[in-house]
Design brief:
The complex is a heterodimer of chains A (about 400) and B (about 150).
Chain A (H helix, E strand, L loop, with lengths): L19 H6 L4 H7 L3 H11 L11 H10 L6 E6 L8 H8 L1 H15 L3 E6 L4 H17 L6 E6 L9 H8 L23 E5 H13 L1 H5 L2 E2 L2 E2 L1 E8 L6 E5 L4 H8 L9 E6 L6 E2 L10 H6 L8 E6 L4 H15 L5 H18 L5 H17 L3 H5 L2 H9 L1 H5 L4
Parallel strand pairs in A: 1-2, 1-4, 2-3, 7-11
Antiparallel strand pairs in A: 5-6, 7-8, 9-10, 9-11
Helix pairs in contact in A: 2-6, 2-9, 3-4, 3-6, 5-6, 6-9, 13-14, 14-15, 15-17
Chain B lengths: L3 H5 L9 H12 L4 H11 L3 H10 L11 E6 L2 H5 L2 H12 L12 E6 L11 E3 L2 E3 L7 H6 L3
Classes of the chains: A alpha/beta (about 400), B alpha+beta (about 150).
Chain lengths: ~400, ~150
């Protein structure tokens, strides 16, 4: 039987998130103290050797990212926590921050020491106003206790824009602009918030930092999949019996996630499909259920780990209808800056609606495939590049669902 | 008329604080009146068109008046398959308005939302930001009763 392993959720239910004394008693801020006794390069080396990769979806080496910002000479640098989790079906960052806000603050402060920053921001999504209060309370208590030293953290509330989860769009929003992604390069570690070197990491990434510093890189590197070590917090939605959140080692298989932790399909029905990584993720058929959830294994199947949302569909679900709904989401959330996304998400939605209402033909499928290729290659940011994924993976893996709808 | 600058000014020293200022205005008015957007532009020393551009980019900000209580229904995929449409139908029937509209007495506005991050119990609606999970058409009258 597969078992949970709680690293980022290590304090869940054990401490009062509104009281810093609980966190301190549990050994909190000791890793920050230890990190401050190390040179910034040693901290970065340790994070690099741990193999930790970004938990927001892109899977980039955290230590390597920090190194880019560390190398830059600047009068100010910034540490930004991306708490704008907007992937439908995802609420893992909320669970982390609601239960253990200081673990995120501590990770940010360690990053600040490593890259040489004195100011940090938490960009919390507008849908979580109460959580912003929890975070502000944590920051105030940490300042009162003096544990953050000269590192200052400010909490900012987003205002409902999925695209702001993209790091350059998030930066634009923090600057008080429309949240439209920037052209890259330069990337944020070189030129980010107010053109200063900036590290934007996901909540879950930051929550992993203190344990890595405390227990060492070798400990972390030995957990889960070799090339994507550690754990992942997953949120189970849809037709599973146990709709819950879990934290599991990254070598756990999709089958175990659904049939062990999720306790299988609700209503004694059969499994049909699972979409992992949020609404921009690929749909996976039964034949691929023994794939481990780590970033690289998932990518090899044409799917993604993404945010860790696990959206399960039973045998009676109408895949074409669900995907049509998803294409409406992307049309709504496209920021409109680049034409391939602005026009592409709209066309994709129209073609999917045509098929969903029984008016589509074989040419429409070919058109979707071609449009998907263009968008994946030509869109400015991850939103437009990933938007075709649910469409293309369902055409590939669930072709009969489409064929029965065509005229 | 409300003194918008009084609401907005505390955020003027905040770099990039225009979104926080809009949140503060909306907390009082439930929408961003044109005069408030102009006042914000003046306080932050940016062109009005830029302030308007920010106000209209984010789905949480509205430039048209809304009701006292804002009901948002998640229409993302997990809520969609859990019966969000039936909840929409029940809300429209109960309030006698369509999605995007406000009741004549100004008490309720119905809006679609994308995922609100409460997917442990679907479908989800929020009223003034407070989430209600596992909502059924039958539970709508009781939930609305809290706000009537």
């Amino acid at each position: 039987m597969a078992e949970e392993l709680r690293i980022v959720l290590r304090h869940l239910g054990k401490i009062d998130p509104m009281n810093i004394d609980d966190y301190l008693k549990a050994g909190g801020y000791q890793a920050l103290k230890k990190a401050r006794g190390m040179s910034p390069m040693d901290v970065i080396e340790e994070v690099k050797k741990s193999g930790l990769r970004g938990r927001g979806g892109a899977g980039f080496s955290t230590g390597q990212k920090w190194l880019f910002a560390h190398r830059m000479e600047a009068d100010e640098k910034y540490v930004v926590c991306n708490a704008d989790e907007g992937e439908p079906g995802t609420y893992k960052d909320r669970v982390i921050m609601e239960n253990d806000p200081h673990s995120v603050l501590e990770g940010m402060a360690i990053c600040a020491h490593a890259i040489g920053a004195s100011k940090g921001y938490i960009y919390c999504r507008g849908e979580y106003p109460d959580l912003a209060k929890t975070l502000k309370n944590a920051v105030d208590q940490a300042k009162d206790k003096g544990v953050l030293g000269h590192f200052d953290i400010e909490v900012r509330l987003g205002a409902g824009a999925y695209v702001c989860g993209e790091e350059t769009a998030l930066i634009e929003s923090l600057e008080g602009q429309r949240g439209e992604p920037r052209y890259r390069p330069p990337y944020p570690p070189v030129s980010g918030l107010w053109q200063k070197p900036t590290i934007v990491n996901n909540v879950e990434t930051f929550a992993n930092i203190a344990p890595i510093i405390e227990k060492g890189s070798a400990w972390f590197a030995g957990i889960g999949a070799a090339k994507f070590p550690g754990t992942k917090v997953l949120t189970l939605t849809g037709d599973v019996k146990n709709r819950t959140f879990i934290e599991v080692p990254t070598d756990t298989t999709i089958r175990d996630v659904i049939f062990e932790f999720g306790q299988g399909i609700a209503g004694n029905k059969k499994f049909k499909a699972v979409q992992i990584g949020g609404t921009s993720g690929g749909f996976i058929p039964e034949t691929l259920l023994d794939t481990p959830i780590d970033f690289d294994s998932m990518r090899q199947t044409g799917a993604t780990l993404g945010s860790g949302a696990v959206f399960v569909l039973d045998q009676d679900r109408d895949i074409v209808d669900v995907v049509t709904r998803i294409t409406q989401f992307f049309e709504h959330e496209s920021c409109g800056k680049c034409a391939p996304c602005r026009e592409g998400t709209m066309r994709m939605r129209r073609i999917m609606e045509k098929i969903n209402t029984g008016h589509g033909n074989k040419k429409d499928i070919a058109l979707l495939e071609r449009l998907g290729r263009v968008m994946a290659g030509a869109c400015l940011c991850g939103l437009g590049q990933a938007a075709p994924t649910p469409v293309i993976t369902t055409i590939n893996n669930f072709s009969t669902d489409y064929e029965t709808r065509l005229v | 008329m409300m003194d918008y600058k009084e609401i907005i000014s505390p955020y003027a020293s905040l770099e990039g604080g225009i979104i926080e200022a809009f949140h503060a205005v909306q907390a009082k008015m439930n929408y961003l009146p044109e005069e408030a957007i102009i006042a914000t532009a003046e306080v932050f020393k940016i062109p009005v068109k830029e302030a308007y551009g920010v106000a209209t980019f984010y789905s949480y900000f509205s430039i048209t008046p809304r009701g006292k209580n804002i009901i948002r229904i998640c229409e993302s995929a997990p809520c969609h398959i859990a019966g969000a449409q039936e909840v929409v139908d029940a809300l429209e029937k109960e309030l006698g308005i369509k999605m995007g509209e406000t009741t004549p007495d100004g008490k309720f506005t119905l809006e679609f939302a994308q995922c609100v991050g409460q997917c442990q119990e679907t479908p989800v609606i929020t009223i003034n930001g407070k989430p209600y999970g596992g909502v059924s058409p039958e539970s709508i009258p009781q939930i609305l009763g809290e706000y009537k």
